[in-house]
Amino acid sequence: MEPKVIDLKDWLFKACDEGEWLTAQVPGCVHTDLFRSGKIPDPFYGTHEHELQWIDKKDWEYETVFSISEELGAESRLELVFDGLDTYADVYVNGELTLTADNMFRRWRVDIKERIVSGDNRISVRFRSPILEDLPKLERLGYTLPAANDQSVLGGLEDKKVSVFARKAPYHYGWDWGPRFVTSGIWRPCRIEAWSGARISDLYIRQDEISPESAQLTAIVTIESVEALDAELTLTSEGLHWDTEMSLNPGTQIIELPVSITNPKLWWSRGLGEPNLYTFHASLKQKESIVASASVRTGLRSVKLIRDADETGTSFYFELNGIPVYAKGANHIPNDSFLPEVSDERYRHEISSAAEANMNMLRGWGGGIYEADIFYELCDEYGLMVWQDFMFACSMYPGDKLFLANVQQEAEDNLTRLRNHPSIVLWCGNNEIDLAWAHYNENAGWGWKRQYSAELREKIWADYEAIFHKILPEAVARFAPVAEYWPSSPLVSLSRDENQHANPRRTSGDIHYWGVWHNKEPFDNYNVYVGRFMSEYGFQSFPEPKTVKTYADEESMTLESNIMLAHQKHGSGNQLIKSYMDMYTKEPRDFESFLYMSQLQQAEAMKTAIEAHRSRKPYCMGTLYWQMNDCWPVASWSGIDYFGRWKALHYLVKRSFRDVSLVITQKGDTVSVHLISDVSLPLQGTLHLRLFNFTGDKLQEFSLPVQAEAQASVILYQSSSVELLGNHDPAAVVLLAELVQAGATTDSKEHYFVKDKDLKLCAPTVTVTEVPGKGGTTFNVACNSFARQVWLSTETEGIFSDNFFDLIPGLPKMVSFLQRSPGEARFLPSSPETLSVRSLADCVQTESIR
């Protein structure tokens, strides 16, 4: 029989040193409960973050009362289950200490049958302050461990960085895009499960050997039994059936059942095929009665991380079902500082947005959380591969026995929970720690190790190796044995010498390139530093004015206001945006124009990077920019803001990540048109090239036949800019390249011969007219003179089929609006309430318009 479940949702909470009980929301956290109770202001507004740092210095108590029916009380087991406790918690049942938790990332289960009474029962969860809990650990250690993004000063702790001691989401202590809100609470669902006889506690479909002809699997079934019994285990899927008989003893046992499927429907990433999924159902029967059952859904696929030596270094790419995959996507962070606020709909919006933008991979970054099940389920459904970090980032960690044992159990819990998801193609130990410490190269790294004696350096590095070179790879090998493991990102290899550590010039491993942005290098350096797999790079922008106005009043709408600086977590971020704008664009007309132009600048930077990476295929086989999303409304590197609104970057990515794509590059005087194909079929078509002036006159036109192999990366056309331009002004023309197949345009790209700041823009009139018969959902957008970066906006939440595009007179664009619909997995065609349009010429100083 299935366990009978009592969901525990009705809770009260209070500060342990106060007497007033308030209504709590579970799952939830202290900060949001205080806000809903009217005890604190909106944490995201203005500079309220700075005023709310007292919350993490207090202990908090949550309490609920429930009753157990006579029927449930008769069951053999009554288990209290917490899917997530954040973080240091003592759980009391009817006044007795029953469970002590110390890891946000673990699940907790305890039998409470002996502590339950007839009538009302009381559960209390007392959360100890993570700050007060961990300060003594720092004192006992005797030295500070590096934690680059721990905003301890903002938290009132001076330089005492305690985040490294807690197995808790690192970004809660602050990051260079996120606030410091160190939360406490019951952050994932909790319940009581009542059962007797036996239960299936885990069902794992291990994929031993996968090919188009056959899938050789092993169903690994974990069974907990209260008593000895003879039973039959049956596994079914897609009309297929496997079974075995067994004798169970009291306790936990693991049963392995061989499974074979002929001509399986394989799981493919988006763009290569269908993400086919199988549901496997296991039943434990005794005398034809079902004693216990469990189901899992998975996709059948083989994944390998290919790192083969070649003439330039060592490759780094994923091979899916024997096919090399060019990874296109972004780094994902948690969708909220207050994790229980992330609804299923918000997850659907993010994942469907990734698929709409032609992505095939997201990286679950190591400073956040192991995401909710629905995140991975949606990635399974949409065919999005997941590079999954373990939750360690930009810090060194302690190596005492209790900490290491906690990490080991954390890894087991999460590998077991997530190992059936076909979307997860890699487990990575950490983010940027090998790079930052750089143990084998005295002159490399972030300067951390130079703070310590030689003896202490070796101790800290030994603790690092215990986690990332021993505990985690051994856990992956044991609990997800066919999964790939990579110790740190970025990394070259485990050579245990100076060649282990990544830098932008390496020709092996994965690369994080931040010269553009942090080092103020020009955009063109994206073409210089191209690695085998670009797992991080990025450029900042502000969100749109509608979002900024949710955290700032009109008086604060200036670049250096206190509120604007509070919502810019990179120390010099606002000035960096402005510095690059001075370099590449004209002077904004006003602050709202500055916000808009910051997005255009971000999109142009990422366009340069993505095209540099894709045009170097197969040398470079992956491009994951930083970052997909935001955890609060803020100026950041995201392509989608906190409210799910697509920035210019995300529309640019949708165009740049097309599976068959044109890339136009100019190196010196040479202009090249590249064709990049990520599909597994050869293609043919026609390349059309046209040169226009800004009044729409066609100055040149010619066409070339196109034939390309599967997965091609070829140069279709090359010419000097002098030959293309003739006597025409390079600041007043645009080159349009179009790839046409079977009468339809597969891709089109524009190319400019000067920077944006040097373009001779006129003030265009852009018209938007409804397309008849489309119910107000589709529009023709046209202009009377060249319009750069046309932005359509509406108060209705949703997306456009295209946006932030360039318009050439005589070549209108047809654009549809798709509304964001709660509860729907996809965007739905809709008529926007209002519609406004502007272009770059509307947003620059009048004297810049010629």
Gross morphology is globular
Q: Please compute the radius of gyration using only Cα atoms.
A: 28 Å
**Portion in helices:** 10-25%
- How many E strands? 43
What share of residues are in beta strands? 25-35%
Low-confidence stretches: none
Calculate the terminal CA-CA distance, rounded to whole Å. 78 Å
Which whole number gives the mean pLDDT? 96
The count of helical stretches stands at 16
Coarse structural class: alpha+beta
How do the helices and strands line up, and which of them pair or pack?
Layout lengths: L3 E4 L2 E6 L6 E4 L4 H7 L11 H4 L8 E8 L2 H4 L3 E6 L5 E6 L2 E7 L5 E4 L8 E8 L2 H12 L48 E6 L2 E13 L3 E12 L3 E9 L2 E9 L2 E12 L15 E9 L2 E10 L4 E4 L10 E4 L2 E3 L1 E6 L11 H13 L4 E4 L8 H10 L2 E5 L11 H18 L5 E5 L4 H5 L16 H26 L5 E2 L24 E2 L2 H4 L15 E3 L8 H4 L13 H5 L6 H12 L6 H24 L7 E4 L22 H9 L3 E8 L2 E8 L5 E11 L4 E11 L4 E8 H5 L7 E9 L2 E8 L14 E5 L7 E6 L3 E7 L4 E3 L4 E3 L5 E7 L8 E2 L6 E3 L12
Parallel strand pairs: 21-22, 21-28, 22-23, 23-24, 24-25, 26-27
Antiparallel strand pairs: 1-10, 2-3, 2-4, 4-9, 5-8, 5-10, 6-7, 6-9, 11-12, 12-15, 13-14, 13-16, 16-17, 18-19, 19-20, 29-30, 30-33, 31-32, 31-34, 34-35, 36-37, 37-41, 38-40, 38-43, 39-41, 41-42
Helix pairs in contact: 5-6, 7-9, 14-15
Provide key terms for this protein.
16 helices, alpha+beta, single chain, six-stranded parallel β-sheet, six-stranded antiparallel β-sheet, 19% helix, 850 residues
Question: Can you walk me through this structure?
Answer:
It is a single chain. With 850 residues, the chain is of the alpha+beta class. 19% of the residues lie in helices and 32% in strands. The strands form eleven sheets. It has a six-stranded antiparallel beta sheet with strand order 3-2-4-9-6-7, with helices on one face. Helix 5 (344-356) links the parallel strand 21 (327-332) and strand 22. Helix 7 runs parallel beside helix 9 and helix 14 (591-614) runs parallel beside helix 15 (648-656). The protein is globular, with a radius of gyration of 28 Å. The mean pLDDT is 96.
